[in-house]
Amino acid sequence: MIRSTRRGRTGRLVVCAVLMLVPASLYPQSGSGADASAANSSAKTAPAAPTAAKPHDATFIIGNDDVLAINVWKEPDISRSIPVRSDGKISLPLVGEVQAAGQTPAALEKDIASKLKSYISEPEVTVMVQQVNSQKFNILGQVVRPGAYVIANSPTVLDAIALAGGFRDFAKQKSIYVLRQGPDGETRLPFNYKDVAQGKNMSQNIKLQPRDTIIVP
């Protein structure tokens, strides 16, 4: 019995030693190995990531005081953040003065690129609007701080009144109106503050557009 037991143990040790010498690649693949293989396969066949779209609105018209980020690929001496001057122009190295106000960012890109072709082979220009300071509305009359305000975050009439510090003592809160410039002339849009403050006729609390003027009598 003792000899038999020793032989059995010896046999098992030999089998274990043989298995250890077998390359791991000959064993059946487990789930993790299959996943790795699939990942490698998908990595080889996955298409390249698409180029990101240029970050500007093609319909936006640049105006005075807007701040532009102009990037010329591989040209750090020309690339910069620059405000549009009161005359509507910007000035860049090699390019000189360029009319920016009245153009879309895409049109300005083409204009700058065309002026750089004399100095740079196939210049790649990107124009982004960093700050919109040209689009403003006015609020006049019986408010604490009448004046012009930059349109940001789609303000409503209520937002405008808050920005202007609220009403003065004798403001006619039921007789407020918005003057809006349109292709057919000026439109007068009534606004009853007391109704809106009570949750009535909320459609009066319109979103403001550039060049709107709020009158608080």
Query: Which residue ranges are poorly predicted, with pLDDT under 50 across at least 5 consecutive positions?
Result: 1-11, 13-55
Helical amount = 25-40%
Structural class: alpha+beta
CA-CA gap between termini: 115 Å
Number of strands: 10
Structure report:
The structure is a single chain. By secondary structure, the protein is of the alpha+beta class. It is 27% helix and 24% strand. The chain has five helices and ten strands. The protein has helices at residues 2-21, 31-45, 105-116, 157-163, 193-197; strands at residues 67-72, 80-83, 89-92, 96-99, 125-131, 136-141, 147-150, 176-182, 185-191, 213-216. It has a five-stranded mixed sheet, with helices on one face. It starts with a helix and ends with a strand.
What's the topology here?
Blueprint: H1 2-21, H2 31-45, E1 67-72, E2 80-83, E3 89-92, E4 96-99, H3 105-116, E5 125-131, E6 136-141, E7 147-150, H4 157-163, E8 176-182, E9 185-191, H5 193-197, E10 213-216
